[in-house]
Amino acid sequence: KWTAPEALNAPEALNYGRYSSESDVWSFGILLWETFSLGVCPYPGMTNQQAREQVERGYRMSAPQHCPEDIFKIMTKCWDYKPENRPKFSELQKELTVIKRKIT
């Protein structure tokens, strides 16, 4: 069975093997971060274990350089520790559409 690299996984996926739409939203937030950091690996300077421990303690990555504030806000919503507090993909699509309209 293939699993995503640890850095992409939500805490509940890493801790309990619980994969869901909510854990996919967490991963989407990480992918957004990677995209806006121009391909930097998530949790720079940390091992997978260090990143996992830091996330459990509440650490979240800071905004990539030149990342629009609206996009970083989406990332942080995706990284809510409680899966039920993360946005649905339909909500993310609406937010991203609004941002796209503002910049085009």
From TrEMBL:
Entries under Pfam families matching the protein: PK_Tyr_Ser-Thr (PF07714)
Signal peptide interval: none
Gene Ontology BP annotations: cell surface receptor protein tyrosine kinase signaling pathway
Source organism, top-level taxon: Eukaryota
Boundaries of every Protein kinase domain copy: 1-98
CC per GO annotation: plasma membrane; receptor complex
Keywords per UniProt: ATP-binding, Kinase, Nucleotide-binding, Receptor, Transferase
PROSITE patterns: PROTEIN_KINASE_DOM (PS50011)
Protein name: Fer tyrosine kinase
Taxonomic source organism: Mustela putorius furo (European domestic ferret)
Lineage: Eukaryota, Metazoa, Chordata, Craniata, Vertebrata
